[in-house]
Specification:
The chain is mostly helical and 88 residues long. The chain is built from four helices and no strands. The chain folds into two domains: 39 residues, no CATH class; 31 residues. Bound molecules: zinc ion (ZN). The site of zinc ion has 7 residues, from α1 and α2.
């Protein structure tokens, strides 16, 4: 008597089988995760979410990008400060 296990095939990627929460930002992300085109409600929800994020802190992305680059004003101020320090 051989005890060979022949159970049902285990499901993989359980998270991919969850129903999509359509009409929400999460739903939009679920579509993206599955590489599906977003349905209308999800696309609207995502747009609204991103607009809201952008409205809350519009500088966030720009600020992150500019960390390496000084603005013209900042640069001038820095140069002026350096000259002042070196002059005296
Ligand atoms: Zn959807």
């Amino acid at each position: 008597m051989s005890e060979h296990e022949a159970g049902p095939v285990k499901r993989r990627g359980g998270s991919a089988r969850k129903p999509i929460a359509h009409g929400t930002y999460r739903g939009a992300r679920q579509h993206r995760y599955r590489k599906e085109p977003l349905c209308r409600p999800c696309r609207d929800a995502e747009n609204a979410y991103q607009r809201e994020q952008y409205a809350r802190n519009p500088r966030k992305r720009a600020a992150r990008k500019q960390t390496q680059y000084l603005t013209e004003e900042e640069w001038q101020a820095r140069v002026a400060a350096r000259r002042e320090a070196g002059a005296s």
